[in-house]
Amino acid sequence: MVTSVVNIHKKERCDIYIGRTKDDPMHFGNPYSLGKSAITSLSRPDRYTCLLAFHDWITGRADINVEPERRAWIWDNLDLLKGKKLGCFCHPLVCHGDIYRVLLGEITLEEVLDPIRPKPKAPEPDQVCLF
Q1: CA 26/CA 37 separation, integer angstroms
Q2: Which residues form the DUF4326 domain (predicted)?
Q3: pTM of the model
């Protein structure tokens, strides 16, 4: 059975809630939000930046030391997500639930990030493009 992400705002039934919660320090929520965040100097990082930061965090990139105990807990409990309906507020937009599907081996990181990857800016008319 394939893992899926559903929108709990739309009252879609989920098996496991993967959003942030203050009730339990060990949860599947993304520590990086689209609101003001420590991951960038931008006041509102975009979805691509947040998901890339989540992927780097959850895969243990050495220079990211945010909530290491919770990251370890997620890895210890990752198999609980396999084949389940993951409840989040983002779906149908791409979200960290899709990164969990990457970690479970169901889809690739490129499949998640390519549709939301920022497009390169077109050169100004008076600039010469060498590529």
Answers
A1: 20
A2: 9-99
A3: 0.83
Is 47 buried (19+), middle (13-18) or exposed (0-12) by CB count in 10 A? middle
- Long-range contacts made by residues 105-114, C-beta under 8 angstroms, separation at least 24? 106/2, 106/3, 109/55, 112/51, 113/48, 113/51, 113/52
Separation of alpha carbons 83 and 47, rounded Å = 25
Paired residues of 4 in beta bridges: 85
For residue 111 the two structure tokens come to 């499949």
Dump pLDDT digits (tens) for 97-114.
Answer: 999 999 999 999 999 999
SS (H, E, C) 75-116: HHHHHHHCCCEEEECCCCCCCHHHHHHHHCCCCCHHHHHHHH
Q: Which residues pair with 85 in a beta bridge?
A: 4
Confidence of residue 62 (pLDDT cuts 50, 70, 90): low
- Residue 130: the pLDDT is 66
Distance between CA atoms of residues 112 and 110, nearest Å: 5
DSSP per position, 49-72: HHHHHHHHHHTT-TT--S-HHHHH
